[in-house]
Amino acid sequence: GGAVSLWTPPGERQEGPVRDVAVSRMGDVAASASGGAVSLWSTLTGQRMATIQGQGEEVRCVSWSPEDDILAVAHESGTVVLFDTAGGRERGRAEAHCGENPECKCTHGPRVEGVSGYERSDECRVAGHSDSVCRVAWSPHGEFFATASDDGTVRLWSASTCLPAMAQCVFGSPEEWEGMEAGCADLARRAKCGEEDPNSHCRSGRHVVTAEGAVIVVVRVPREGSAGEEPVAVSSFQAHAGVRSLCCRGASVVVGCEDGKVLFLD
To answer: Does 226 fall in a domain?
Structure first.
């Protein structure tokens, strides 16, 4: 019910646009991806707590496990690395078909007009994606995670081994996944479609946060069952630069911007 304010840690900036932000289930830590690194922030103080260096390529997205003990970091190549959040130690990786993977026997030509130059070899035994991973989703207890890629597929993995949890990847839309076990189908759907579009809006309680360009708007929505009550814009803010990503968890709202700034809404 109090006023909403926008603030950013003074002097804190990442190298390059913040491509993705994710708030832990507890709401006390936020992860932001920029360039080849992931920063961990306290949502209470805005201080940068740690930096996880990637594998020399762009990080596309980040995702917390249900217990907040693992952070999945997805790269442009399609490789997903799991980190222990307590110490920053790498726990495992779901390898991709990419030139950086010595086990991959496929051909990797240059990307042309956004299309991968990948050509599969029948001799290759790598089970991963052949293009960038755009979204990661977790099973309710964290034993599995699913990855959706620009190669058009969804893959399910064991979190303990980072090996495929299904023999085949999933193609097409959820409506075409006939015969899949319900839990697997739901996990694959959340990876494919997302809970919501993180670049358009997110919700914290009765407040919906939206962004267009560099403008952030907070809207209070009606209580469930409140007839005749209309949504009301309660606050708006001008960010330093265009907004690339938003994430809400409880009362914590984190915003990632084009200029490398990470903003917090209270």
So the answer is: no
pLDDT digits (tens, 9 = 90+) for 81-129: 999 988 888 999 888 755 566 665 456 556 555 555 556 656 555 567 7
Indicate whether 79 belongs to any domain.
Answer: yes
| Domain coverage including residue 116 | 54-195
Give domain status of residue 236, yes or no. Answer: no
Q: What's the pLDDT at 3?
A: 43
pLDDT digits (tens, 9 = 90+) for 116-125: 555 665 655 5
> Given a cut of 90, is residue 66 above it in pLDDT?
yes
Q: Rounded to whole angstroms, how far apart are CA atoms 121 and 90?
A: 29
Rounded Cα distance between 77 and 156, Å, is 17
* Least confident residue range of 123-137, 211-225, 247-261: 123-137
Residues 21/31, Cβ–Cβ less than 8 Å: yes
Encoding tokens for residue 65?
């496990």
Average pLDDT over residues 69-80: 90
Are 255 and 239 in contact by the 8 Å Cβ rule? The answer is yes
